[in-house]
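Limitations

Structures in this collection are predictions, not experimental determinations, and the ligand pose is part of the prediction. Treat each record accordingly. The example that follows, with adenosine monophosphate as the small molecule, is included so readers can see exactly what is and is not provided: the inputs are given verbatim, and the output is the predicted complex.
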Amino acid sequence: MNVLVINAGSSSLKYQLLNTEAGQVYAKGNAERIGIDDSFIGHQEGDGEKEKLVVELPDHRTAIKHIFEILEKVDVPVDGIGHRVVQGGWYFPESAVVTDETLAEVREVAPLAPLHNYAEADVIEICRDLYPDLGNVIVPDTAFHYNMPEHAWRYALPRDVADGLHIRKYGAHGTSHRYIWKAASEFTNGACHKLVSCHLGSGASLCAIDGGKSMDTTMGLTPLDGLIMGTRTGTVDPATVFYLQRVGGYTVDEVDTMMNKQSGLLALSGVSSDSRDIEEAAEAGDKNCQMAMDMFCYRCAQLILEMAQSMEGWDTMAFSAGIGENSDVIRAGVCEKLAWMGVKIDPELNKVRSGDVRRISTPDSKIDVLVVPTNEELMIALDVEDLLGDK
Ligand code: AMP
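Predicted complex:
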């Protein structure tokens, strides 16, 4: 089946056209600065050169029309569309076919992720309207965590308040963690039972996966919780929020922006939110950058053990996403802090650069340590195939 995977943001839209049987990517790209000036579409066919098409994109509708026009030239029929949805809230324990009802549900839970869900729902509606013959599927990032045990998802708030407002741990990156489990199981021929999946990108989260089920994860009500991220704080004492307002004089919106966009590695390093820049500066002796990297690894190792505890054991850990797949320095830093637990990696294997799943632990390591390039788009496409049937 040929599936168009769409990942819509408020002013951008990423797309990928791929085949579910072969995993082949026919084309991919991104529409940027939608509704702003200087909009463009970056488009790439197969392994070809990326081209930049300067086009006016006043809204998402225009962007989608352009993308379909560009894809016509690829000459691969689109059989169905999969939509990444950031927040599935209390409605989606798994992916679902788009209907009036499921679309309304994506909008109903949007206050939990206002920057994403409204745009995603709009894009789904536009796709249904423009291409009524194509089926659409909602793939929420939270679905994988929906059935975590209650002791993992419930917050110790007054029950009526928490339940009335649907406040709980929803987690995120679920589609990626689900793919990482699948790839790790295949790579180890089923020897992986209790996996700590480490999705370390500009957004970062860990997931405890026992026999394919999410048992706990580090992101919470929103993707702000847990690990230190590119520009997000990760976990801080919640009272920091009141203190910033009462004593610091910041408004709610200012605190929101500060904690989501001006914190994390960016704030700690004072240099960049990108771990490549930080690694470079740390190597050149920048103390703040060295501290930023050390803190990132410290929190990561600490929360890996929290995830292991939630499964009462672990046999495998997998590094994934931009930092996890590419930074041997961060992988080494995290594993070094876990050495007392018997985690041991081979420095040479750790340095290997590859797009394949690979093992970096030594044969005598107590924990199997893997690097798993994530593939959320393939996972989304497979869900579309599951729900809409092969064509
Ligand atoms: P993602 O959100 O998964 O796309 O990850 C993006 C982040 O991965 C970037 O902000 C970088 O910090 C990091 N990254 C990507 N490539 C590399 C690399 N070669 N070495 C170190 N970090 C990298």
